[in-house]
Amino acid sequence: MRAQVAYPAAPDYARMMAVKFDLPKSCPHVAVVTIDRPEAANALDPPTLTQLAEAWRRIAADDDIRCAVLTGAGDSVFCAGMDMKRTIPAAQRFAKGERVDAEDFEGLRNVSTAMLAGFDLATPLVCAINGHARAGGFDMMLASELRVAVPQATFALEEVALGLYPTGNTTVLLTRQIGWADAHEIMLTARPIDAERALDIGLINRIVEPATLMDEALELAGAIAANAPLAVRATRAGVRELLALPLEQAYQRQEELGRPLRRTDDAVEAQRAFVERRKPLWKGR
């Protein structure tokens, strides 16, 4: 059964939340996560990091959620990365062994999970990029499987310009997703690229107008969620596993991954639905 969002009853709590979590009735089995700090360029301060991590853990633990969508509030910035006024100073103090307050410590403790760096969401993720995706925002986008962006979106990884190493997803994933030269131009120049260039090098799937951004993202998420859930999860996981294997082992392993799915109730239901010319009713078993 789908879990329900449980928020404290304080009257202004919704205003205090930096991350919104929604299960839209119009798109079954899809969760929408929104970074809601438009006044701060949707930057990731410690509370936002903690709330993002909680959202990802919830999605990973709920089998009824078959796809997720991540976006930012407002019409200009998807996510500007780490909050330069709070998160970066706290991280620097912590790195020096200095004391940080409890809320900052909790946010820093959740950075890897919030950024989906080393944390397996186990569920396909679609990014609806409503504006600039910079630094940690760019980094978090790389953990998604599908990406749609508005024409005015830009993409940049700015760590080297700040004297930092990009320790999230970029040095691990970017050269696996786009060409070597394009990846290094982004990583080493710290210069932004526009949406057209991002589309051209395969960093995003498509460019859409702002008015249709969420409709397009939810359409993709809905298409994923409409498929057999065990097969979707296994395919997503398999692609990631096979990347690291030599070719011969990869072919052997994909057969090992595929064999159990042929015996599932969902596989039988798919065949029956095809014969009966109807949509299958997935059981997830």
List keywords for this structure.
285 residues, alpha/beta, 2-enoyl-CoA Hydratase, Chain A, domain 1, Lyase 2-enoyl-coa Hydratase, Chain  A, domain 2, six-stranded mixed β-sheet, globular, disordered N terminus
Textual characterization of the structure:
There is one protein chain. With 285 residues, the chain is an alpha/beta fold. The protein has two domains: 13-225, 2-enoyl-CoA Hydratase, Chain A, domain 1, CATH 3.90.226; 229-276, Orthogonal Bundle (Lyase 2-enoyl-coa Hydratase, Chain  A, domain 2), CATH 1.10.12. Helices cover 43% and strands 13% of the residues. It contains 13 helices and ten strands. It has helices spanning 13-16, 46-61, 87-95, 102-109, 111-114, 136-141, 170-177, 180-189, 195-200, 213-225, 229-242, 247-258, 265-276; strands spanning 19-22, 30-35, 67-72, 77-79, 125-129, 132-134, 146-149, 154-156, 193-194, 206-207. A six-stranded mixed beta sheet has the order 1-2-3-5-7-10, with helices on both faces. Strand 2, helix 2 and strand 3 form a beta-alpha-beta unit. The radius of gyration is 20 Å and the shape is globular.
